[in-house]
């Protein structure tokens, strides 16, 4: 593979980065009326299904690092969407839940959140969408496994 502008613009990493930018822009547009980011919407989904989840499990579920999650939770707590309370089983941990306002925002924003996914994939035919999602999931799963393995370099 040669190194050129052409190879850069068609490189997998560049195309994935650009697709991520576009998907984020679409999601921000769709969720603007609720003042939610895509990560915040994802957090609403998880907390709606798993009230009382701890931060460590939430990080794992959303593939977020702890520092990023803390900032998101700070903003959502300040907006009155989530609560953080001491875990009765582990005083060092906090459990998370939606407030009544958070549940209401989740219900109202759900249709737009689903619409975001449809908008992102809209340029593809239904068959292409299915193939794309299957291949994208395969890529993410394989690279996650590869990067999760201990290094064999001995360093």
Features:
three-stranded antiparallel sheet, 3 strands, globular, mainly alpha, about 160 residues
Could you characterize the architecture of this molecule?
The chain has 155 residues and is mostly helical. The chain is 66% helix and 11% strand. The protein has 7 helices and 3 strands; from the N terminus they run H-H-H-E-H-H-E-E-H-H. Strands 1-3-2 form a 3-stranded antiparallel beta sheet. A hairpin with a 2-residue loop joins strand 2 and strand 3. Helix 2 crosses helix 6. The relative contact order is 0.11. The mean pLDDT is 91.
Give the integer mean of the pLDDT values.
Answer: 91
- The secondary-structure element order is HHHEHHEEHH
Estimate percent helicity. Answer: 55-70%
- Report the span from N to C terminus: 29 Å
Based on Cα principal axes, name the global outline.
globular
Instruction: Report the radius of gyration as a whole number of Å.
Output: 19 Å
Biggest sheet strand line-up: 1-3-2
Question: Structural class, judged by helices and strands?
Answer: mainly alpha
Total of helices:
7
Beta-strand portion reads 5-15%
Number of strands: 3
Enumerate the spans where pLDDT stays under 50 for 5 or more consecutive residues.
none
- What does the largest sheet look like? 3 strands, antiparallel
């Amino acid at each position: 593979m040669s190194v050129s502008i052409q190879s850069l613009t068609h490189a997998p990493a560049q195309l994935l980065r650009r697709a991520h930018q576009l998907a984020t822009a679409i999601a921000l547009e769709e969720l603007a009326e609720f003042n939610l980011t895509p990560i915040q919407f994802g957090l609403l989904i998880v907390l709606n299904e798993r009230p009382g989840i701890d931060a460590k499990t939430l990080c794992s579920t959303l593939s977020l690092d702890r520092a990023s999650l803390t900032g998101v939770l700070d903003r959502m707590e300040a907006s009155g969407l989530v609560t953080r309370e001491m875990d009765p089983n582990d005083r060092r941990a906090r459990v998370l839940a939606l407030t009544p306002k958070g549940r209401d925002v989740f219900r109202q924003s759900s249709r737009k959140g689903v619409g975001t996914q449809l908008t992102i994939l809209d340029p593809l035919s239904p068959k292409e969408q299915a193939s794309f999602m299957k291949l994208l999931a395969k890529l993410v799963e394989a690279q996650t496994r590869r990067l999760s393995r201990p290094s064999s370099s001995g360093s």
